[in-house]
Amino acid sequence: MKFLNKKTVLALAMSLSFVSFSHSQINSTQKKKIDGVVGVVGKYVILESEIDKTLIELKAQNIPVGDLSRCDLFEKLLEDKLFAHQAVQDSLDVPDAEVTSFMTEQINRMVEDVGSMDKILQFYNKKSEEEFREYFFEIVKQNKLTQNMQKHIVEKVTITPEEVRQFFNSIPKDQIPTIGDEVEIAEIVIKPEVSKEQKQKVIDRLNEMKKDVLENGASFFSKAVLFTDDKGSAANGGFFSITKKSPFVKEFKEVAFSLAEGEISEPFETEFGYHIIMLEKIRGQHLDLRHILLVPKATSEAIEEAKKKLEGIREKIVNKEITFAEAAVSSSDEKDTRLNEGIIKDPRTMDTRFELNNMDDRELYFMVSGLKEGEVSQIATKTNHSTQSKDFRIVTINKKIPEHKIDFVEDYTKVMSMALNKKQGEEIQKWIGKKIKDAYINIQGEFRDCKFRNNWLNK
User: Fold this and answer.
1) Among the listed residues 90, 206, 75, 92, the one whose alpha carbon sits nearest the alpha carbon of residue 141
2) Closest by Cα among 143, 41, 48, 46 to 82
3) Which end of the chain, N or C, is less packed with Cβ atoms under 10 Å?
């Protein structure tokens, strides 16, 4: 987006994720040069090698880098270290267990992307997996602290319709962004029905685990590692640190905040399955807890029945006996889309239009990429990533929108998101300008000659 200057682009590089390496990145020959400290913010140091890696990370997030210089990238690192430093000062710390859990997910994804840990070790110039994990732990920790601080800074930033209009009108006509081909998609989902017997088996098993921990001194951590169906928290023994604002379902938070330290809940149900929670510690507004999730499994007969049910629904839609929207409202088991006539929203923007070339859901992309407007797909499985269970779904394309310049009315949700991001970026820049005065900052070598946006050298 050309109308956003470099200052805004870097300010919008929030919630920094980690590199999704490609084989070409890993296998590329990199010139080795002496790596030294070029900056310090609080207790955090910046190595010269981090500058090149920051460029890779920004590209991996599809953030426009354009003509960003090494000075721009260095200042981005100064900002990240300042966020992390202030997060610790403001008690926005991240539990080590949460860092370890997230780090494990990231490493597993990286290994899956490039094929082996050896390639990752080679890229990062580390001798062993243990050395790499120690190094990567600190990266994850700092990024988590940075995210916490950024979220805290912008949590009260809102935007009005008038501000959105003013933002759009401020874009030079020749710099209005182009949006690629888009589609509005609707779905009907049928979930295999789980019997009462299967549910009771799961409840009984959770009660047995609870009894074993309380009466026999068994390890809740070990049971979570071995048996939970929540694969995201399994490696960390089911650990979460939450507040009342954490994005957990209502039932989970109600149970968690009703427990005393050391207490284990009764089995309870959420949309994800059945849980037990052990509350380890209360830290002010934070709860440190562990949970075990078990998902009742549908029988093969129930799976076949669900598929046949969806086949019947599809046949009625194709034969014009019922519209797709009517069938979605009356029959779909997906509550997030059912009341909206099956229409799917982009979880990042809550927009009903998906830009085809930027769809994150690859299963959905392959279902719709060859469909015509109004055509109904064949039946396919839909993966529930929280429980790894399989449902069945059909989709249709309600509308196709060809590539076009962004329109204030038609693309209002996107314009509003852009305007809010810009306002949040400006709020962050104001915060940085104030906090620079209080933090210990040291800049070395050639970077002292950079023309920074902010007064890092306190001149």
Assistant:
1) 92
2) 41
3) C
Computed on alpha carbons and rounded to an integer, the radius of gyration of the chain in Å comes to 25
pLDDT along the chain (459 residues), means of 10: 40 42 44 69 90 76 73 92 94 82 81 85 87 90 93 94 97 93 95 93 97 96 93 84 86 95 96 94 91 93 96 97 97 92 86 86 88 95 73 96 94 92 94 93 92 88
At residue 174, the pLDDT reads 92
pLDDT for residue 62? 62
CA distances from 66 to 6, 10, 12, 46, 50 (A): 9, 11, 15, 23, 19
Rounded Cα–Cα distance for residues 423 and 425 (Å) = 5
Structure tokens at 291: 């949970």
Q: Please report the pLDDT score of residue 64 as a whole number.
A: 66
